[in-house]
Design brief:
Distance between the termini: 87 Å
Order of helices and strands: EHEHEHEHEHHEHHEEHEHE
Oligomer: single chain
Radius of gyration: 39 Å
Largest sheet: 5 strands, parallel
CATH architecture of the largest domain: 2-Layer Sandwich
CATH class of the largest domain: Alpha Beta
Number of helices: 10
Mean pLDDT: 94
Number of strands: 10
Bound molecules: magnesium ion
C-alpha cells in the first residue's frame, strides 16, 4: 500500500533528512530529499507527492512559505512541519495555514515520525478514495438519467413510428380538455386511417407495411405545429390534437395532410386499389361536439368512418344529427 505513496523530505540539515528517510523507508514509503524549499518545489513540479515533511527554519525560503505554496498549488498534498520545541507558536501557525501535523526536533521518539506520516498518508488515501467514489457516483447518475429517459420514451412512445402512443394520447387529451376548459379555448381532434392498408400488407409483406406506417408518421409530424400532438392510435390509425384550432381550420389542416399523403410517392403505391396511398379523416371539436374525452373520440371516429363509407380519401367533420 505504501509503495505508491511518495514522500518528500525538506530540510537544510543533512542529519535530519537522513533520520526521516530511514524511518519512512522502513515503513515502505518512497522518499525523496530536498535541501531547501526552492528545490522541494522544483521536485513537486515533476512528481506527485502525497506528503511533504518540511523544516521551518531554512535559508532562502521558510517552511511556512513552502507550506503556503504547496497548499495553493497542490491542495491534495498533506504537509507536516518540523520545528524546535522552542517554537510551538510556529507549529500552531502552520496548522492554521493548513499543515496536517507537526514534529518536534530533535527527534526523541522515532515512532512519532512514523505515526504522523502514516496518518497523513492515510488521509491522502481517503481523500483520493472519496474523490473516486464521487466520480463513480456521478457516472452512475448519468447512466441512470439515460435509463430514465429511455424508460420514459418507452412508456409514452410508439415503438414502430416514434410517435406518442395510445396511452400517452389518452392522458394528454384529458389534460387538454382541462386546459381548454379553464382558458375557454377550443381544440380539434383529427382521426386518420390508412385506406386499404391490409391490401398493401398482403401485397408487399408486413415489413414494407411497417415502413409505410413510418413514412406516414414522418409526413404527419411535418404537417403539424409544435403545439400540436400526433400519436399512433393503433394499427394504421393515427390521431392529431390541434391546439386552439376551430373545426374550419382543422379541416384545412386535414385537407393539406390528405393531399400530401395522396401525392407522396410511397414505395409500391401503384398496386393499391386507386393506384395511390390515401387516408380517410374524421374531425371533432371541443367544445362544439363534446366536452369529455369519450364523446370527442367517438365523434371523430364516426366522422372518419363516414369518410370511409363515402369512398375514402376524404375529410369529414362530425356534425350532430348526421
Ligand atoms: Mg533548518
Amino acid at each position: 500500500m505504501a509503495e505508491d505513496m511518495q514522500i518528500l523530505v525538506v530540510d537544510d540539515e543533512n542529519s535530519v533528512r537522513t533520520v526521516l528517510t530511514q524511518v519512512l523507508q522502513e515503513d515502505g514509503f518512497a522518499v525523496t530529499e530536498a535541501v531547501n524549499g526552492r528545490q522541494a518545489l522544483e521536485f513537486m513540479e515533476k512528481q506527485t507527492f502525497s506528503l511533504v515533511i518540511t523544516d521551518i527554519v531554512m535559508p532562502k525560503m521558510t517552511g511556512l512559505e513552502v507550506l503556503a505554496k504547496i497548499k495553493r498549488r497542490y491542495p491534495e498534498t498533506q504537509v507536516i512541519i518540523i520545528t524546535s520545541h522552542a517554537s510551538l507558536e510556529t507549529a500552531i501557525a502552520a496548522l492554521k495555514h493548513g499543515a496536517y501535523d507537526y514534529l518536534f526536533k530533535p527527534f526523541n521518539d522515532l515512532d512519532l515520525i512514523s505515526a504522523a506520516a502514516n496518518r497523513a498518508v492515510e488521509k491522502v488515501r481517503l481523500i483520493a478514495k472519496n474523490k473516486d467514489l464521487l466520480e463513480k457516483l456521478k457516472k452512475k447518475n448519468k447512466e441512470l438519467e439515460k435509463v430514465n429517459t429511455t424508460l420514459k420514451n418507452l412508456a409514452c412512445r410508439d415503438g414502430l413510428t416514434g410517435l406518442f402512443n395510445h396511452r400517452y394520447f389518452q392522458e394528454y387529451l384529458i389534460f387538454e380538455i382541462y386546459r381548454s376548459k379553464r382558458n375557454k379555448e377550443t381544440f380539434s381532434l383529427v382521426f386518420l386511417d390508412l385506406d386499404f392498408f391490409k391490401h398493401y400488407n398482403d401485397t408487399h409483406g408486413q415489413l414494407e407495411g411497417d415502413k409505410l406506417l413510418r413514412s406516414l408518421a414522418a409526413i404527419l409530424k411535418k404537417s403539424i405545429r409544435k403545439s400540436d400532438v400526433v400519436a399512433r392510435y393503433g394499427g394504421e390509425e393515427f390521431v392529431l390534437l390541434l391546439q386552439s384550432t376551430p373545426k374550419a381550420n382543422a379541416r384545412i389542416v386535414g385537407e393539406k395532410i390528405r393531399r400530401n399523403v395522396e401525392s407522396y410517392p410511397f414505395k409500391g403505391r401503384e398496386t393499391q386499389p386507386r393506384g395511390k396511398v390515401t387516408i380517410s379523416i374524421g374531425i371533432s371539436n371541443f367544445p362544439e361536439d363534446g366536452a369529455d374525452r369519450s364523446s370527442l373520440i367517438q365523434c371523430a371516429d364516426e366522422a372518419m368512418y363516414q369518410a370511409k363509407d363515402s369512398g375514402r380519401n376524404k375529410v369529414y367533420l362530425w356534425a350532430a344529427g348526421q
